[in-house]
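Here is one chain, start to finish.
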Amino acid sequence: MEVPADRQARVASLGPDLPVQVRAGGRSQATRDGVRAAPSLPGCYLFRDPDGHVLYVGKSVTLRTRLASYFATDRERKVIAMTRRAATVEWHITESEVEALVLESALVKRFQPQYNVQLRSYPHYTFLRLADPGGDGVPLLELTQGVGADGRPHFGPFWDRTSAEQARDFVNRLFSLRVCDGPLPSARVGRTCLHGQIRRCQAPCLTGDVGRDPYRQAVDDASALLRGDAMDLVARLESERDRAAASLLYERAAELHQMATTLRTLHGKRRHLRSAAHVQNFVVVVHDELRVGAGGAQVLAFSGARLQGQVVVQSGLYGRDDERRRAALSRFLATHFPISRALEIDRAELDQMHVVASWLARNGRRSRYVPMPDGAVTPDAIRAVVARAVMAIDDAPSALDSGTNTARRDAGENPSPTE
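Its structure:
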């Protein structure tokens, strides 16, 4: 279908490489009567001055209502000042609320509008990276900003440097990983290392090739914990503990028991560590009466933090209708997964990760998380995910929950241009 020239011009005015696809758009004078042309759909809007400079970027689940609020009689002085300077307002329609949020964040960072206070800068996240600075096969955990394309495993993101340091210190103590920077030191230097003497490090510099296999196993265990696979690790540690006790290796059995107990406690308190840095595929089922009606839900596909696509699916279908619904979901999943890309997360994707995580946290009662396997997606895996997605679609939240979340979401749209 040919895209109208005026729409092409409006989309082009937003700049290249938009994070989401803009469905449609419009423009009017920045007046009370002009904004009535905006649709009651989700999307982003931009107020521009007579020279075309962007004054403010916002988003809404219902553009017409949101834009009308800027010309209400009880406006704040900041709103009055911005609308007096504005000559035009344009809107860009998205498929969903979360797409509008992602687009808004990207446009604020791109244009740096005068009246936007929040979202102007990228979030600063810290990751843990499994580095091998000496290339000797004895890696260590180090802190890094962002995820590069070096192919090394990254774990995170952590909200701040302090939480990343605490996670690194905990994992190092639990698995006795090396903490010295640079290439692996010589045996002479290693004998004077305090961490080795107090058994806070496995001292691979002293054990040589004989100690490499146990150290690699410890690194694998640490990686599993940082990915969030705590209970699988606990089960393996308990099995090794039982074998050590049966072999009369009581000291080793006690060490394994202490590690398993610590991990169980950590998991039980919901403080287990997890990774969002590696390519992780999942779908989110969202019940949204404003967008798709009471009998349907949106299914959104994510790879890592990137929104790959979405589809609207109705609930309560049976017989051949249910078969068609499942077939449509299967085609949707096969189209969007697996996602093959380099393990590199730039600032834009970190920003999407932050926006999507915040949105999911606000919509916990309306949304259901369904994980997808990484790598190749088999027909059996697709059928299993479709079954879980259909259950989530048909398990709609109560009217009370839905109304509460709608009110909370609408209340979160502050009409002040300095939100």
